[in-house]
Amino acid sequence: MSSLPPPETTPELPASAPPPEPAQRPSWPLWTAPAALVLGFGLGALASLAVDIVAAAGGSSVSHPTPAVSIVSDVVFDLGFVAAALYFAVLQGPVSTAAFGFRWPGLAVTIKAVVSAGVGYYAVTAVYSALIKLHGTDKLPSELGVGKSTAALVAAAVFVCVIAPIAEEFFFRGFLFGALRRMRIRIAGRDIGTWVAAVITGILFGLAHTGSASPQYLIPLGFLGFVLCLVRWRTGSLYPCMALHSINNSLALGVNQLSWNGAEILGLMSASLLVIAALTAPLAGRTLQFPGQHATLRA
After folding, report:
1. CB under 8 Å to 298, separation ≥6 — which residues?
2. In Å, how far are 62, 96, 164, 246 from 252, measured between CA atoms?
3. Looking at per-residue confidence, does 112 or 142 come out higher?
4. Which site from 123, 229, 249, 291 is most exposed, i.e. has the minimal number of CB atoms within 10 Å?
């Protein structure tokens, strides 16, 4: 996984009411959450191993892979989780992409959600950073060769700022959070299942970055995962989650790794968001199913 820690420097969310419950609680069973985690990790690990074997046959070092091999390996690893989510969702019958959050909540709602959640996240992270004196940079971009060539920089930026936000949001907020929300946990007459699902998803999101981020950054990344769940819940959409995820990664890459100026970072953000929109906008309103399935379509 490849979300980046924030640049070194409970969020306030939009007051608008969440979408109706049928749109908020996908109908895939609770057991599919751990099953998809296991399958996703297995598929990703096998796919990455296959990339390493092919690269080694071509002369690449397994212990010190080239940036190209590292990027391809990271991409297929993330795609393993996407494949697992798709499998267990569609296994239950035809499903609308809206169940994953591919619905447009409106520009104003999106901007408000991204800004308010982003401000809250960075404020809490700044306090955490000051308390434990965060230092150093994330190791993933250097492994992807961002300082070695322009081609490696472009490829790494596409992966970190476009591919990872799409794939990771699809799995964690689109599928996993939706499945875990089927939990019913009542305290004092209130169902806190959604909050527990957000916490669990955030923790798993942080742990998923154990290999690409230093241990000191796992707590901020876990908190980011929690915040993104709240954005998904409050807006009913995956698009604001992908936007905030991409903005965070663009900031971290531009500030911590490349020492870019404001205009360059803004350019990276804008380009990344435009590419994400172009790739994911056509997914809204689609129906996903295995060949031969004739079940009733689920939201």
Report:
1. 26, 27, 92, 93, 94, 95, 96, 99
2. 28, 34, 14, 10
3. 112
4. 291
Can you say how many angstroms the Cα of residue 295 is from the centroid of all Cα atoms in its chain? 30
CA angle 242, 245, 246 (to 5 degrees): 85
Q: pLDDT of 35-92, one tens digit each?
A: 999 999 999 999 999 999 999 888 877 777 888 888 999 999 999 999 999 999 998 8
Domain of 153? 23-288
Total number of domains in the chain: 1
Q: How far is CA 188 from CA 182, 192, 195, in A?
A: 19, 10, 15
Mapping DSSP onto H, E and C, the string for the chain reads: CCCCCCCCCCCCCCCCCCCCHHHHCCCCCCCHHHHHHHHHHHHHHHHHHHHHHHHHHCCCCCCCCCHHHHHHHHHHHHHHHHHHHHHHHHHCCCEEHHHHCCCCCCHHHHHHHHHHHHHHHHHHHHHHHHHHCCCCCCCHHHHCCCCCCHHHHHHHHHHHHHHHHHHHHHHHHHHHHHHHCCCCCEECCEECHHHHHHHHHHHHHHHCCCCCCCHHHHHHHHHHHHHHHHHHHHHCCCHHHHHHHHHHHHHHHHHHHCCCCHHHHHHHHHHHHHHHHHHHHHHCCCEECCCCCCCCCEC
119 inside domain: yes
Q: How far apart are CA 220 and CA 141, in angstroms?
A: 18
For 241-282, the pLDDT digits (tens) are 999 999 999 998 888 778 889 999 999 999 999 999 999 999
- Whether 13 maps to a domain, the answer reads no
Q: Helices 193-207 and 218-235 sit at what angle, rounded to 10 degrees? A: 140
Q: Flag whether 134 is in a domain.
A: yes
Residue 3 lies in a domain: no
